[in-house]
Fold each of these.
Amino acid sequence: MAKPRAQFICQNCGTVYSRWAGKCDACGAWNTIVEEGTSGGIGGGPAAMRSARKGRPVALTSLQGEIEDAPRIVTGIAELDRATGGGFVPGSALLVGGDPGIGKSTLLMQAAAALASKGYRIVYVSGEEAVAQVRLRAQRLGVASAPVELAAETNVEDILATLADGKHPDLVILDSIQTLWTDLVESAPGTVTQVRSSAQSMIRFAKASGSAIVLVGHVTKEGQIAGPRVVEHMVDGVLYFEGEGGHHYRILRTVKNRFGPTDEIGVFEMGDKGLREVSNPSELFLGERQEKAPGAAVFAGMEGTRPVLVEIQALVAPTSLGTPRRAVVGWDGARLSMVLAVLEAHCGVRFGQHDVYLNVAGGYRISEPAADLAVAAALVSSMTSLALPADCVYFGEISLSGAIRPVAHAQARLKEAEKLGFGQAVMPASSEETLSGIGSKGFQPRMLIDLVSRIAG
Ligand code: TYD
Ligand code: MG
């Protein structure tokens, strides 16, 4: 038999190398490549040498009824159900990733308790905390009386044996994948090989038993343990739980979903009794708005199917440096450079002698190009020290030629703005003929220069 060769695996992204290196070429991380034994069991090694068993293909059409009837496991926590696309799917595997301490265990304990109280059988396997600690947290959350079954196990084979006892559970929460280890491979817990093999065994269990499983994974910066990215491709859904330091709200973001839409978000606020749902995030992000300040524009954005209003703040100030500063928080720096260039080239607004700071209020992060117009409005407003109308929202994409391009979901954005008391909108000339309410009263510039002349008067 061939001698098992050592392999070197990046703990951040899972790329395999034949020799050690200081930097991973695939993901660019430093010091994340660690020697691991070759994996047995799955896809190689002695455990894979078993006799082949004949499979039985089934007709696609014969499955129709079964799939339609598969009931979702709905927690009743609306923000979580939205992010999962309507509840947990029996037989599926979901990954919940996030920084340590962000609130993953808290969220899942609340979900577990809500489901257990509805009569589902929920098993919460904690590899990080002792059963007593988990119970303490449940007490703090006010859900200690919910009939959730707790287990403090880390060995996959033991977990599977435990789960085989009695009626099969509806949902199994594994907190966290980095603590799991399987007898099939020899690497230490937390290494890529262990995390992948353990996840694989649990996912196979989910498919075979029909239980839904949730894998919790810590996002790691140091590369000491494998990050959740190394199992993203194996699971049916991936949610990331995010939050900004110093802010109490948390965003649950759908990154992958085989059974529903991605780009959805759920918004929560962390309090002393756990996570509270925030059903109207716009109110949260617009909370501390100073209406008469120059340099602030309200962007009517979308997160998946849901409109979110958020304030964009710009500060343009004369520079004392040779090269003026450009600093951005919550938006793309390259996109800011582009908007500045278009303002300079097509609208005659010069930023060469000015520092530019851009901030998205509340620590929120925007990825939509539709924010261009709001950013441009905030920049011009700060440059001219003229405050924008307080009851106006902005959205639209700016092209390099200075034209304003239409964006999707105009109607949904306008409806949200109207609900929150805004009276007008600056937006692209829309193909949606049915614009009503504030949309019909809005200003629809075709070129960015039209907006600049309107602001600067
Ligand atoms: P936790 O769910 O343990 O995070 P994770 O599992 O993602 O590592 O959350 C830990 C943090 O949340 C901790 O800093 C304390 C805080 N917290 C509250 O503010 N209120 C609460 O009710 C609970 C349970 C935790
Ligand atoms: Mg935890």
Note: The mean pLDDT is 87.
Amino acid sequence: MGFKEFYEANKERFLQELKEFLSIPSISTDPAHKKDINAAVDWLKNKLETLGFETKTLLPTKPSLGKNANPVLYAEYTVDKNKPTIMIYGHYDVQPPEPLDEWKTPPFAPDIRDGKIYARGANDNKGQLYANIIAAEYYIKEVKEKQYNIKFFIEGEEEIGGPTTNEIIEDSQFKDILAVDTLWIADGPWIAHNKPSVVYALRGIAYFDLYLENLPQDIHSGIYGNVVLNPANLAGYVIFKLKDILRNRIRIPKIYKSVRKPSKEEIKLVEAASPTYDEIKQEVNAGVVTPYRRKGTTFPPLVLTGLKPSLDVHGIYSGFTKPGQLKTIIPANAWVKFSIRLVPHLTVEKTEELVRSYLQQIIPKGVTWKLTRLFSGDPFYMDPARPELKKLLEVVKEAFGKDPVLVPEGGSIGLVTTFARKYNPAILMPNYGLPDDGLHSPNEKFNLSQLEGGAKTLVLYLTKK
Ligand code: BES
Ligand code: MN
């Protein structure tokens, strides 16, 4: 049976199964959801075993998260040990769904409207992962001459930059099962609705929490204002000093010195693939976007999100924050959470060093401050001219009927760099999502046409010579 026919014949069941998987609130940021994490693992284990996979849950010898470590679900379907092995990556953990009242239907009660399935994790990553599971089912049941062994490696700490997955990759007890020829990752969106996107680079991330303290307790701002340094004001000052938001320049000295200079061809490729500032403005309903101009040239957004480091503040906390009420204090302290997205050759270590010595310089002596790195991962890059990308681009084109583009991605998928360093497989990253899927936002969705197209992409890859 051809794939199309197979998909149509089983579509109702596929949607039912995907709904089941999406109903599990496997939120990794909150330890209260540990039982849902386990439920997601069990669901996948049961599903993959039914298809004929042998499964195992993997934990490192000494997980640094101890009892809170979320296991990797590993599965293998071996055709012939001498044939090449492709390992399919996915993550079963999801982001928290808040703010809940912005969801049209509840985040863990998946709803199909207008050819799209709405739920937390619909795109990121359960929907894309399930597309690969559909492909595996077809391959196992319908393909006679199988050229590949397939494995799944499905982690549960992607959304918290968790250490467990990296510890598993580094753990030599797993070296025989992880040394694969190819790693297949569908965990991101296309660059535009008509541009299927294959990823050749991912940014890394260094995520920090900065604590500032100038007083043991809050004090009266009328008595001491102008005299005692205010940590909330200082937080604003530090944020201002970290980045020029109108010119899109990080102000930390030497940050740009370490950044890889892309070739002219690569820049051309990226410029051609890029959406416009207006498209992005509409996509997220933003009031202001900040085009990057240098020496009279305006660079398109993808240059900024794919090839440059960026710095964003994620949260600020200080002082009196009750809406509508007032209290005149100089707060004792302030917290700022911020991250820097990294591109080669800006490593996490290097970045932390630069941030630390800059803060040393700009925070007045006498203020107590503490910089904590909450998590991090180095950037990933491969030459977009690598030969193994050719077959991938061909099958993506055939699966979706549109010409694909090769793109550097702004997001981060921590394990890719670790995996590449340790085992150096071919890394294939065909995204199945669309730009308006709302990753990490309310009303996250995944188009059913992408579910089918994604499954078809992997089927074609597995069956084409
Ligand atoms: N699937 C995303 C990563 C992604 C986003 C890839 C957009 C390509 C384009 C992933 O689930 C994610 O959100 N990762 C986090 C990692 C962080 C928590 C360390 C990210 O990029 O913020
Ligand atoms: Mn993801």
Note: The chain has two domains: 3-202+380-463, 204-259+308-377.
Amino acid sequence: TEQTLVLIKPDGVARGLVGEIITRIERKGLKIAALKLVNVSEEVAVVHYAEHAERPFFGSLIEFITSGPVVAAVLEGERAIAAFRQIAGGTDPVEKAVPGSIRGDYALETQFNLVHGSDSPESAKREIDIWFPGFAH
Ligand code: ATP
């Protein structure tokens, strides 16, 4: 079955939404195969978001993602990558994420959009290797 790497970003942890988000993941039917609370180093943040290095928001994104602990998880299931992105909602929590999605229900600003999920099998493998070395299959 497919694997995806999910982060509950510092805003989600700080706002006490970890339980709510994990509940939605479990209700969807996705399996939590690995889970941990981590303080993110700048090195890990920069590697994780390497594809955004040239974007204007990169500096503030790195500052945000290292601002407090995140919850990192590997989810498994049939079409896990698309399934998590469906329950997360679009990147912009107001213009793109629909009500009923995690971002649509709980977020206001694009940067502070609560969760990350891998966007392709290649990204999932790369990201699982960063957060859970040796765990990708
Ligand atoms: P993620 O990769 O975290 O799942 P995504 O794939 O929906 O999010 P990306 O376009 O890959 O969105 O952007 C990565 C992250 O960078 C976003 O989740 C958001 O936190 C931040 N971000 C994206 N666009 C902006 C923006 N215009 N201004 C501020 N932050 C942004």
Note: The mean pLDDT is 98.
